[in-house]
Write a structure and sequence with these properties.
Elements (H helix, E strand, L loop, with lengths): L2 H13 L8 E2 H7 L2 H7 L6 H10 L3 E2 L7 E4 L1 H13 L1 H11 L1
Antiparallel strand pairs: 1-3, 2-3
Helix pairs in contact: 1-6
Length: about 100
């Protein structure tokens, strides 16, 4: 996975956008994770919606079958990011320092 995709999942985890009860609209999700900063730091040319769709296909984020109207961090996304925090803490620290 690219660093900017990990940054999205990490920010969603840190902001508590986890599980269906905490889902938010696509626009609010992008603001909460600070997509503009992530995209400028990592020079991402794609829009947030296309990046989010890729993460939904990977089962890290979920749109609850609502055609990208809402987003939240899925169970697999939580497992992935907690594993990254435990096993690749240096990479996570670098990503956090880059986006903050």
């Amino acid at each position: 996975m690219d660093d900017y995709e990990i940054a999205i999942v990490l920010q969603a985890y840190d902001k508590g956008i986890v599980g269906m009860p905490n889902y938010v609209s696509l626009e609010k999700f992008s603001k909460m994770i600070n997509w503009r900063k992530i995209s400028s730091v990592y020079r991402v040319k794609k829009g947030f919606k296309s990046v989010a769709q890729k993460l939904v296909k990977r089962k890290l984020l979920s749109d609850d079958g609502k055609s990208m109207a809402v987003l939240y961090l899925d169970k697999l996304g939580v497992v992935y990011i907690t594993g990254m925090i435990e096993n690749e803490s240096e990479r996570i620290s670098k990503i956090l320092s880059t986006i903050e």
